[in-house]
Write a structure and sequence with these properties.
It contains ten helices and six strands, in the order αααββββαααβαβααα. The protein is mainly α. The chain has two domains: 45 residues, no CATH class; 173 residues, 2-Layer Sandwich (Nucleotidyltransferase, domain 5), CATH 3.30.420. Helix 1 runs parallel beside helix 2. It is globular. The protein binds adenosine monophosphate (AMP) and magnesium ion (2 copies). InterPro entries: 3-5_Exoribonuclease, ERI-1_3'hExo-like, Ribonucl_H, RNaseH-like_sf, RNaseH_sf, SAP_dom. It holds the Pfam family RNase_T. Its main location: cytoplasm.
């Protein structure tokens, strides 16, 4: 993937603020401060868990890691798929950042009620390019999609097929990050196939089927991702193999 760079003073200031650091000064100074902080942060991160604890049933599953991923996006009531959704929450299991939208920076009442994400939260959040940068650091920490194999797991095809595609267009990212271009696991489809159901079920439908309860707030990206992970864990314990079953077709226009 083309690594996004923090090229603007505004971007650097936001990134420094995000880290709780002084955001005053000229561009070279800001750049140096940011680089130092990232380096320091990396060296103080706890090491990943020992290999033997990372995947007890390595032989049973085709990937070392599964990244349960569920974004939230700007929306309006009845907006449908034609609406210019911009990502406002981007969580991958325990990596989560809110994201500042740029085309329609004001959230609709509907969107606030649906996602619980406040205007003041996204106003102070980094832009999508910066969040991708942070994700890159998270992935690098565990060597994901490198020496450790990994697959995203999503609730339906929407997050990677639609929201990421729209957001890359909004953020003028010409080359989609490679890890969004490779096949991933659509857990709705996997669930339907594994339990031999006629129809796909949404998160609550899957939880009900397993006699489990939603924990947290529905349509909060991180809580959705955590509940999807709980469903995935249950399926894994029941012997489900998490093979990829969904891929991005770049020729299909939204
Ligand atoms: P979800 O993962 O189900 O929380 O949905 C992801 C995103 O899809 C939301 O942040 C909204 O942008 C959009 N969305 C979900 N449900 C609706 C709805 N009923 N009407 C309009 N947009 C929706
Ligand atoms: Mg979702
Ligand atoms: Mg969600």
């Amino acid at each position: 993937m083309e690594k996004p760079t923090l090229t603007t003073v505004e971007g650097l200031r936001l990134a420094l603020e995000e880290l709780g650091l002084n955001s005053k000064g000229l561009k070279p100074e800001l750049k140096q401060r940011y680089r130092k902080a990232v380096k320091k942060q990396k060296s103080s991160l706890p090491p990943p868990p020992p290999k033997e604890q990372q995947n007890e049933d390595k032989s049973a599953q085709p990937f070392d890691y599964y990244l349960f991923f569920d974004v939230e996006a700007t929306c309006i009531e009845g907006g449908g798929f034609k609406y210019d959704n911009e990502i406002i929450e981007f969580p991958v299991d325990e990596f989560r950042s809110y994201v500042k939208p740029t085309i329609n920076p004001t959230l609709s009442e509907f969107c606030i009620n649906l996602t619980g994400i406040q205007q003041s939260t996204i106003d102070q959040s980094p832009t999508f390019i910066e969040v991708l940068n942070q994700l890159q650091e998270f992935l690098a920490r565990y060597d994901l999609f490198q020496s450790a194999s990994a697959s995203f797991v999503t609730d339906g095809p929407f997050d990677i097929r639609d929201f990421i595609t729209k957001q890359c267009k909004h953020s003028k990212i010409k080359k989609r990050p490679a890890y969004f271009d490779i096949p991933w696991v659509n857990i709705r489809k996997l669930f339907k196939d594994f339990y031999g159901l006629k129809e796909n079920k949404n998160i609550n439908g899957m939880l009900n089927h397993l006699q489990m309860q939603f924990k947290g707030r529905e349509h909060s990206g991180l809580d959705d991702a955590r509940n999807l992970a709980a469903i995935g864990k249950h399926m894994h314990e029941e012997g489900c193999i998490f093979k990829t079953n969904c891929k991005f077709n770049r020729n299909k226009r939204l």
